[in-house]
Design brief:
Blueprint: E1 5-10, E2 25-26, E3 29-30, H1 31-42, E4 47-51, H2 55-63, H3 83-97, E5 103-107, H4 116-129, E6 133-139, E7 176-186, H5 187-192, E8 201-205, H6 217-232
Parallel strand pairs: 1-4, 1-5, 6-8
Antiparallel strand pairs: 2-3, 5-7, 6-7
């Protein structure tokens, strides 16, 4: 039997780092346009819904064929609102008014470089691994073992482990970071579990040239440059 899968796009109105981020024009189209396009072109989902507190985003998404069956409560759309709570709210609504799906894909509209193949790869890997969840990562430009917090007096004595000191960059181990693009997994994992990294979760490696997570104006300008370079290839 074919597994049923739902995609939940999370896009709140508030953004402290870049005001009105999700509707900000990116090469003539709202930032959210690129996520909607990639999700729809993947042709994987039995249903695509948007969770938002914004009537403007609701109207735009509905024009693009995305369902917006509810408006997210304002308490779940502040700068301190965890994404986990917004997902839980959406799943509760879906369970009550629709049905329980086998898999859930949730995604933020903060990466305009995403393509449908990234989404397809995540779902394929989830099925192949027979795991609980797939989360996308990308390689760091620099080894993260050489990064640390700073003390108040700014001392950097023993700032990072000796075995990584005085080594050329080429000899450093590769490290990866969650890039905030792909989160796909079993319904029960999203619905019942709080710490996804404690589950049977695997990484999907995305290329650096499609791994951006726009939080502020600097990220936005970097993404524009990366997008332009990708289009020239």
């Amino acid at each position: 039997m074919k597994k049923k899968i739902i995609c939940i796009i999370l896009a709140k109105n508030y953004s402290s780092g870049l005001p009105k981020k999700n509707m900000r024009l990116f090469y003539g189209k709202p930032l959210i346009h690129y996520t909607i396009k990639a999700v729809q072109e993947s042709k994987l989902f039995d249903k695509i819904i948007l969770s938002t507190d914004s009537k403007f985003l609701k109207k735009y998404a509905e024009k693009k064929g995305v369902e917006v069956p509810f408006l997210r409560p304002k308490r779940l759309a502040t700068k301190s609102s965890p994404a986990m709570d917004s997902i839980q709210h959406a799943l509760e609504w879906i369970k009550k008014n629709d049905k329980i799906y086998d898999y859930v894909q949730y995604i933020f509209p903060a990466n305009p470089l995403i393509i449908s193949d990234d989404i397809k790869k995540g779902v394929k890997l989830l099925i192949k691994k027979k795991c609980d969840m797939i989360i996308s990562l990308s390689e760091n430009n620099k080894c993260s073992f050489t990064a640390n917090t700073l003390k108040k007096d700014l001392s950097i004595k023993n700032f990072y482990p000796k075995k990584y000191r005085l080594k050329n960059r080429q000899l450093m181990p590769k490290t990866y970071s969650i890039n905030g693009t792909i989160y796909v997994g079993k319904w029960d994992i999203f619905y019942k579990k709080k710490d996804w990294l404690e589950q049977n979760t695997y990484a999907m490696i995305m290329p650096q040239n499609r791994s951006v997570d726009i939080d502020n104006y600097y990220d936005f300008e970097v993404a524009k440059l990366m997008y332009k370079l990708e289009k020239k290839k």
